């Protein structure tokens, strides 16, 4: 009875995992990530305890020895060693709320693999499991359809659907797995159930069509190309296995259709209608858009990082340090704080060095060996599963894993390992002697208590800190003092400290100078947030993010000398990042070191002259320091464009009383853009500031004719101007 109960606990947990994709915890920070991952960890910890009890007393609950099992174990150990000797071991082990990965998640995935291989030990159980997750994928797909219809909001915004996963890319790879597995079961039904083919074509074909439709509207290029490439690869394998069979002819027909489809699309890729459809637009611009360009830049930086630490790497979650140190200024148009290379090869080269990467590749190698050396798989199964592995790996060449896709990948490995072991001869070596069945109650009690302790240790503080953090971000009738209390409470738990500290610093900046917040509370916010950011900087000594944020906080608080110390540290860790140079320049101006400020802005501009923001900062700095000729040399080619008509440049000229210069620059722009209300208002302000109130009124009257939709606002400005004060 107890044995059945423990087995039921394990099976219930394993079959609950596919439903995690539907779970979103709105009470947690990063709700689409944290809720799923905490639930995954807790389920694994519980079923691990129950499985350990079963495995100690009965050998049939133990995994069969396999190269894939040992390869996975070696991978986990090697990455653990890399994390220990990495540059930020704490984050490598625990990760953060945004990613929820790190070694702790890797260990949980390995535990899941062991349990799944051991307990899902029949084809029937695996069939039930895969059909469970296929059924859930249909639910997910219908949520995606509702998003397309506008009935359910797209969580990440834009046109790319994300269902309950919260990220279109993650939804794309989720669908990739289920399309292949539906195709696998369709092929099996076609072979084994000839009389019921129509039923299964309708069932599995419907799932394939629905999930493919959703995959297309995620506009995830890596997943779409991975799907097409995976089926193409699988088709080639079928042809090679039986070149004169009907299956080969069918596979060949599919390949020809694929080639025609790709060729046709490439021929019409520049048509207007293609670019009106978001997924087709993204595919058509795959070689020319900034995202693809940034991938190559990222890989170049990752290569430099790998060369610095080639054997064991930097530890998990530490690409940010590599990105900072080897930052390429050409990345200016992209996110400034990349924490992933967006390439599985470089991700593991950075995390685990060459040893970790080879250990990761061994998972694919031994999965393929198990697939192709075992007589448990039919030829069509080998082709489809090999195609799935190939398509998934291709997808990972342009992005990275998440819990949803990792769970499916490990499930696939466990499925291959379990079926491969079932078709292999039993090992000659006798198993470790099990404990007596009569000891099961005691063993179960100890194992489940241990599991409960593990649940508490791994999750309790992390969840409590997360909830305190989200409470710290909410508005309260009591005012900012309540937020301060929650931030302090969140920090006590010792988990997610980087994100808590950064949010604390953001909150501190938001209260500076706010009349409704007492001065002593403002000072406490700044002091405590600064203390925590110093700790964060010390905890992650090769990351530029913490000292940079600290410098911004201290600048906003008016502690310019202390801010310079922090910014010096950030600049040392990331000498080429323009954002740091911008803040350095502003800090130098605040300290009265004008020539120093100009030097920082010049460095940022010269690192990437095409970077519009860097150019604007530099022009403004030249104007502010009286170097008008140099400013004019850069401005002259831009006159008449929005790039010359920038508020920061106007402010620099206004500070020196050069209002005519503002009028000339902005008038050149508004000549071709007369309906730009804000730009026209700058001209009005310039006339008014130089004392020419009549010309200011004339400009307002002209605006009323050119921008009739803004007549009420313009009339109010005219009334104010006639009264002698524009507000």
UniProtKB/TrEMBL annotation:
Keywords: Membrane, Transmembrane, Transmembrane helix. It is found in: Membrane. It holds the Pfam family Wzy_C. GO terms for cellular component: membrane. The chain crosses the membrane at residues 9-32, 38-57, 69-88, 100-121, 128-149, 169-191, 198-217, 223-241, 248-268, 348-371, 383-400, 406-425, 437-458. Residues 208-361 form the O-antigen ligase-related domain. It comes from the Bacteria. Its main location: membrane. Signal peptide: none annotated. It is a multi-pass membrane protein. The keyword Transmembrane helix applies. The keyword Transmembrane applies. This is O-antigen ligase-related domain-containing protein. It comes from Candidatus Kaiserbacteria bacterium RIFCSPLOWO2_01_FULL_53_17.
